[in-house]
Amino acid sequence: MDVDRGRVVKGTRFKDLRDAGDPVELAALYDREGADEIVFYDITASHERRGTAVELARRAAEEVFVPYTVGGGVRSVEDMRAMLRAGADKVSINTAAVKNPDLISEGAERFGSQCVVLSVDVKRRGGGAGWEVYLNGGRVNTGLDALQWLAEGERRGAGEIVLNSMDADGTETGYDLDLISAVAERTVLPIVASGGAGHPDHMVAAVRAGAGAVLAASIFHFEQYTIAEVKRRMAEAGVPVRWA
């Protein structure tokens, strides 16, 4: 769930945002419907240089009973600690990690790699030769090679990758399978594929490309599919799923 000023929003390629509801209410609904995990991202915290979404983490702890990750505006180990103490199971870092890669290793040493999620927003280079890392909710192109960055994140102790394709985000035309496969060849970390889900078959394809989990927003927010329908299709295709 992308959160902006306390509301869940969803757009296409990070633009044309639509309101989708209250984040904790939606998370509690998805918990009841059988989601395995919930991910909250305050998508403007880094850009606006605001603090972490600690209050969101605290509210979620009262209503959500599956593991959940919170990210956005995390700049220090102290921010990570505050998020975990508020109830989050994992903390996602993105912009601050690129600016200070030591944050990954410091967080892993302090809290364990299982708590440190390295999130990355990537976009294909012009001409399609590889992918570059973007920061601040997709506003800033770092020029950093995505595959090299994720390999470094693994070396520094990240425990999981959320891999978000900006090209596919919100399009509902399927995940960037080439990107997933390329990352899977460079790292042994679990990959959570993000960006492009429009049909349960897209989830199946992402897992076959190398993802360990699939993240979706639009198809659930706007009631195109239920979580149960997605899991049923994945199970029929031979993908192991966890039933509620």
TrEMBL record:
PANTHER family: IMIDAZOLE GLYCEROL PHOSPHATE SYNTHASE HISHF, IMIDAZOLE GLYCEROL PHOSPHATE SYNTHASE SUBUNIT HISF/H IGP SYNTHASE SUBUNIT HISF/H. It comes from Rubrobacter xylanophilus. One of its GO terms (molecular function) is imidazoleglycerol-phosphate synthase activity. The active site is at D121. IGPS catalyzes the conversion of PRFAR and glutamine to IGP, AICAR and glutamate. The HisF subunit catalyzes the cyclization activity that produces IGP and AICAR from PRFAR using the ammonia provided by the HisH subunit. The gene is hisF. Belongs to the HisA/HisF family. Its EC number is 4.3.2.10. It catalyses: 5-[(5-phospho-1-deoxy-D-ribulos-1-ylimino)methylamino]-1-(5-phospho-beta-D-ribosyl)imidazole-4-carboxamide + L-glutamine = D-erythro-1-(imidazol-4-yl)glycerol 3-phosphate + 5-amino-1-(5-phospho-beta-D-ribosyl)imidazole-4-carboxamide + L-glutamate + H(+). Keywords: Amino-acid biosynthesis, Cytoplasm, Histidine biosynthesis, Lyase. Its main location: cytoplasm. Pathway: Amino-acid biosynthesis; L-histidine biosynthesis; L-histidine from 5-phospho-alpha-D-ribose 1-diphosphate: step 5/9. InterPro entries: Aldolase_TIM (IPR013785), His_biosynth (IPR006062), HisF (IPR004651), IGPS_HisA/HisF (IPR050064), RibuloseP-bd_barrel (IPR011060). It comes from the Bacteria. It is found in: Cytoplasm. One of its GO terms (cellular component) is cytoplasm. This is Imidazole glycerol phosphate synthase subunit HisF. The keyword Lyase applies. Heterodimer of HisH and HisF.
